[in-house]
Design goal:
Strand order of the largest sheet: 2-3-8-5-7-6
Order of helices and strands: HHEHHEEHEEHEEHEHEHHEHHHEEHHH
Largest sheet: 6 strands, mixed, barrel
Mean pLDDT: 83
Strand content: 15-25%
Oligomer: single chain
C-alpha cells in the first residue's frame, strides 16, 4: 500500500506529463473500442443476414446432397412427413423447421427468357417470415397462400424480365421423370436480399407449386432456425448424436460451412483489426516509455539518495513499475468509460454507410459493444503500458549510487 501511495505522489508531481500519458492510453482504448465494436457489428449483421436469408442455423439433407445434388437432385428428396422432422421441431430451443425445395429452369415474360434458381417455401408457416428477415419485399407483397399460383422475384430478375407485381410469368423446369413441365404464375412481389447477384436470378414460390412443377413429394432441405445463434454447435452435436447419418440417412450442416463470403470477410477484417491493435499498442509503449524515462532522468538524484540510505534496487524497480501499472489501469479504465459512452451515442445516431459490394442499398451502421471487445481493449492498453514501464524501471534500479548522487550537487 505504501508503494502505491508513493507511486501516486510521484505521478502527481508532474501532472502535465502524467495527463498526457493518460490521454494517450485512453485515446488508444477509445479507438480500439469503437473500431472493434463497429467490426463486431458488421460481423453480427452479416452473420444474422446470412442465417435469415433462407439459410437457417442448421440445414438437414440427405448425405451427399451438397456434392452431387446439382447433378441428380431427385435422388436426395426428404419425405413430406417425417418423425425425425417432428422430433427436431419439438426440441426446446428450436424455433422452427421449414422445408425447402430447390428448383432451376427458365422463366419467360413476353419475348424475354432467362434462367432462374428458385426455392419452394411454405408460406403457411407464420414463422417463415423469421427465416427470411434479411429478404425484404420492396414491391407488392410476399407469398401468403400456399395454393395461389404466385411467385416473388429478386429485383434484378424482375428488372431483366421487365415485370412488376401483377404481371404473369411462365416457369419451365425439368421434372423428376425427365420430361419438361411448365406453369404460369402471377408475380406477387419483388424482393431484395443481402446478395445482389442472388437477386439477379432468384425467385420464391410456394413449395406445393414447386413440387407440382418437379413432380416430386418432399423437400431437398429442412432449415432449422434456433432461438440462439451461439448455440448452433451445441444443437449440431445433439442432432448428430440423436440421428446418426448411417441409420437415419440425414446429414446436418451448420450455416457457417456454406457462408464462404462471410468467413472470408471475417478473416480479412480480423487481420486488419490485429494490425490496428499492434499499431495502437506500439504508440502506447513509446509514449509511456518516453514519459517514464524522463521521470528517471529528472529524479536521478532522488534515486541516488534512496539507494544511499539503504533502499534495495529491487524496491526502486517496484516503485517505477507500479507507476507504469497505475498509468495503464487509470488510462484504460477512462478509455473504456468514454469509449462505451461514445459507442452508445454513435449507435443511437447511426452511421450512414454506402452500399457495400454486391448490394444496391446502403445501411445504417452501429457500434456493437460486447464483453470481449471491452476486455480486449483494456488488456491491450494495460499490458502494453505495464511493459512500457519495465525498461525505465530497470534503468532506474541500475543507476550507480555515486553518479546518481552527483545530480544533487
Amino acid at each position: 500500500m505504501a508503494n502505491l501511495l508513493i507511486a501516486v505522489r510521484n505521478l502527481a508531481r508532474n501532472r502535465r506529463r502524467a495527463l498526457t500519458a493518460l490521454t494517450t492510453v485512453a485515446v488508444g482504448v477509445i479507438a480500439l473500442v469503437l473500431a472493434d465494436g463497429f467490426i463486431q457489428w458488421v460481423f453480427w449483421g452479416m452473420r444474422e443476414g446470412t442465417i435469415q436469408s433462407q439459410l437457417g442455423h442448421i440445414q438437414i439433407m440427405r448425405p451427399g446432397y451438397l456434392n452431387a445434388g446439382a447433378a441428380n437432385p431427385y435422388a436426395y428428396i426428404l419425405p413430406e412427413n417425417s418423425p425425425q422432422r417432428s422430433a427436431i421441431e419439438s426440441m426446446p430451443g428450436v424455433k422452427l423447421v421449414a422445408p425447402k425445395l430447390a428448383v432451376t429452369g427458365l422463366i419467360s415474360h413476353g419475348e424475354t427468357t432467362v434462367a432462374f434458381v428458385a426455392e419452394g417455401v411454405d408460406p403457411k408457416k407464420q414463422k417463415e417470415a423469421e427465416l427470411s428477415q434479411a429478404v425484404r419485399i420492396v414491391e407488392g407483397h410476399n407469398l401468403t397462400d400456399a395454393a395461389a399460383k404466385e411467385v416473388v422475384l429478386g429485383r434484378g430478375l424482375a428488372r431483366n424480365l421487365d415485370v412488376r407485381p401483377g404481371d404473369t410469368v411462365a416457369l419451365l423446369a425439368t421434372a423428376s421423370g425427365g420430361g419438361i413441365n411448365a406453369a404460369e404464375m402471377k408475380v406477387a412481389g419483388v424482393f431484395i436480399s443481402p446478395n445482389q447477384a442472388y437477386d439477379d436470378s432468384a425467385l420464391y414460390l410456394p413449395i406445393g407449386l414447386a413440387q407440382s412443377l418437379l413432380r416430386v413429394n418432399g423437400a431437398h432441405v429442412w432449415l432449422v432456425l434456433l432461438n440462439d445463434t451461439d448455440r448452433t454447435d451445441d444443437f449440431l452435436a445433439q442432432f448428430r448424436t440423436r440421428f446418426p447419418a448411417s441409420a437415419d440417412k440425414l446429414e446436418f450442416v451448420p450455416w457457417y460451412q456454406q457462408a464462404d463470403f462471410y468467413n472470408k470477410t471475417v478473416a480479412l477484417f480480423t487481420q486488419q483489426m490485429n494490425v490496428l491493435r499492434l499499431i495502437i499498442g506500439f504508440i502506447i509503449v513509446l509514449s509511456i516509455s518516453n514519459m517514464l524515462v524522463m521521470n528517471v532522468l529528472e529524479r536521478t538524484g532522488e534515486i541516488g539518495t534512496l539507494l544511499a540510505i539503504g533502499f534495495k534496487r529491487k524496491k526502486i524497480l517496484q516503485l517505477f513499475a507500479i507507476e507504469g501499472l497505475l498509468l495503464g489501469l487509470i488510462g484504460a479504465s477512462l478509455g473504456l468509460i468514454i469509449g462505451y459512452g461514445l459507442a452508445e451515442l454513435i449507435s443511437a445516431i447511426g452511421i450512414p454507410m454506402p452500399p457495400p459490394p454486391g448490394m444496391e442499398e446502403g445501411y445504417t451502421g452501429r457500434i456493437r459493444i460486447t464483453p470481449n471487445v471491452m476486455v480486449t481493449a483494456f488488456l491491450i492498453a494495460f499490458i502494453t503500458t505495464a511493459l512500457a514501464g519495465l525498461y525505465p524501471a530497470w534503468k532506474a534500479s541500475r543507476l550507480p549510487i555515486i553518479n546518481a548522487l552527483r545530480h544533487n550537487i
